[in-house]
């Protein structure tokens, strides 16, 4: 994932901002958005089933790879009542954003996993492409894009709730 305008999802804030708002100063805008989110609550609530799924995972067996900042992810997870991931690869941890595989490869390395043993859950075409480029199995969720836009994924589910049984079977087979 990663927030922002629909066309920018999963691409990193600098690429999206350069196209949509080149006049904005990145750090100032990031601080303004974070302050607003903390004061008003997150405008992007967790997907149905996210809390149950993440609370059922072993700590240290999953990661978040995002084009957002780590602070924003931690804030959003806290506001949504989700566990904070032990491994968080944010936009400051990589030199190239999605669709480059660097973030997913860093996540696999941080978990001590071979990329081929990892499952990527994505909702954006750039993220699907990054997961495939990292040689990972990719499960696409149709929560922000149509299935046709996510066709490179190995599997498609319309929602996280629909995907949960597959994710649980994947984890159990490790």
Major sheet details: 3 strands, parallel
Strand content: 5-15%
Low-confidence stretches: 1-9
| Beta-strand segment tally | 5
- Helix count from the secondary structure assignment: 7
Overall shape: globular
Q: What distance lies between the first and last C-alpha atoms, to the nearest angstrom?
A: 24 Å
Structure report:
The longest helix is centred in the N-terminal third of the chain and has 15 residues. Strand 3, helix 6 and strand 4 form a beta-alpha-beta unit. The strands form two sheets. The protein has a three-stranded parallel beta sheet with strand order 3-4-5, sandwiched between helices. By secondary structure, it is of the alpha/beta class. It starts with 12 loop residues before the first helix and ends with a helix. It is 41% helix and 10% strand. It contains seven helices and five strands.
